[in-house]
Amino acid sequence: AEDLKNVKRIRKMKCYAVAYIDPDHKASTRIDQDGGINPNWHQKLVLAADDELLSNVLAAITVDIYSYSHIRDKLVGTARILVPDLLKGGDPANPFDNPIQCSAVQVRRPSGRPQGILNIWVPPTGRFLLHRASLSLT
To answer: Which GO BP annotation is one of this protein's (predicted)?
Structure first.
């Protein structure tokens, strides 16, 4: 992520992300200790979703970014990308045809104001086009 709102007043933010398609099945990154307002996770997340959910044109991957705290973690912002946008142009008959590799998504603060960008990398293998049981994000 880049240029996030600094929700810490005194110390540097230590951010982590929670991603999901189905709110009952969430995946979390590790805490980035050093990135501050520009955290880097470089971590693969596998998100569970069934065929019915993935076939919905409004199905979206939601990524909530939090600032870690000893008392209570604070929501920095949220980014959403529609699943059909990730599958756009892919040919289900050809599992290696997935033109989307990297997508930059606007991060919105809890107030709704835009602040920051989340870069999502989707492996170009397109394997999830066949199984449609999970999507991998790095």
So the answer is: defense response
